[in-house]
Amino acid sequence: MLPKQTTSTHDLIKSAIFSSCNDLGVPAFQEYKGRDWRADVYVASDAKKFAFEIQMSPQSLKRTLERQKKYIRDGVIGCWLFEKAPSKLSDERPDLPLFYVTEQEGKSFSVSLSGRKELKLQDFLRNFLIGNVKFCDVARTAREQKVKLVFYEMECWKCKAMNHIYFVEPSFRSACNAVIHSDESLWGSDKNAHRPEIIALAREFIETEQGKHIKLGEIKRRFSKTVQNSYMSFGCYSCNSIFGDWFVMEAELEIKYGHGQVATIERSITLNEIIKLNIPHWCFSGELPFCDST
Ligand SMILES: [Zn+2]
Ligand SMILES: [Zn+2]
């Protein structure tokens, strides 16, 4: 009797890629030999050639780039599916489409685009093969954002009036789900709370039945003696004293990790302006435009 063969995860993924390509109607070959390389799965689709490489064991970035060079030389798009990131790979790179493969229940697999999106293996392949996954140097905010405003109490340090202020969750995202921090603030906290679209939302809420108990002072530029400068800030509805950034951030942390929320609202908003950040990434935004489109 032959010993029972156990198929490695690597080989399971290889055959899953192979059969997915067959289902998609693109010619695929396993263990395809090129000049001085051998691809786990090789795909010749229209004018393009692809090599899919599954890497379940650690492989250094240096070695990966050496192997990738051969594919580039031969006009093949080498696409890497790693279990874990190769050490020393900090930023995503245009010469290295590299994603992460995970086993799901029932011997199916999914591919993660560095945590931004997770697709079923077959959906990933289909999109990758038709060029729906593209390298972009910048990430930019999607026009539509889902936001949550969390209101909490803030006693005025000067006149002791009980005010309310709020913070905004989560950070804005690109259409491909990259996190976009607009950190122009002094202490590195997100200043989305002071954006006109958000202020409008808060103002609208305090006009409603559920929001009418909220005491929200004006949100505007105020001079801070601490930093000897003026900046957009919350302030007291009664005496107009500034609620300093540092002070607000401390209070906010306490609310985030404890209690004290007095009201929350969740809405979709349309951003007035696009925020772009230098985040090199392999962009997949589905029906929406890529991050680098104008
Ligand atoms: Zn006051
Ligand atoms: Zn993107």
SSE map:
Layout: H1 9-24, E1 28-33, E2 38-45, E3 48-55, H2 61-73, E4 76-82, E5 98-104, E6 108-112, E7 118-120, H3 121-129, E8 134-136, E9 139-140, E10 144-155, E11 162-169, E12 172-173, E13 179-180, H4 196-206, E14 220-224, E15 229-235, E16 242-243, H5 245-256, E17 261-270, E18 276-277, E19 281-283
Parallel strand pairs: 3-4, 4-5
Antiparallel strand pairs: 1-2, 2-3, 5-6, 6-7, 8-19, 9-18, 10-11, 10-17, 12-13, 14-15, 15-16
Helix pairs in contact: 1-3
Bound molecules: zinc ion (ZN) (2 copies).
Order of helices and strands: HEEEHEEEEHEEEEEEHEEEHEEE
Low-confidence segments, given as residue ranges, are 184-189
- Characterize the biggest β-sheet: 7 strands, mixed
Structural class: alpha+beta
Number of H/I helices: 5
Shape: elongated
Q: What is the spatial order of strands in the main beta sheet?
A: 1-2-3-4-5-6-7
Bound molecules: zinc ion
What's the mean pLDDT score?
92
Termini, distance in Å?
Answer: 64 Å
Radius of gyration: 25 Å
Helix amount: 10-25%
Number of beta-strand segments: 19
Strand content: 25-35%
Into how many domains do the coordinates divide? Answer: 2
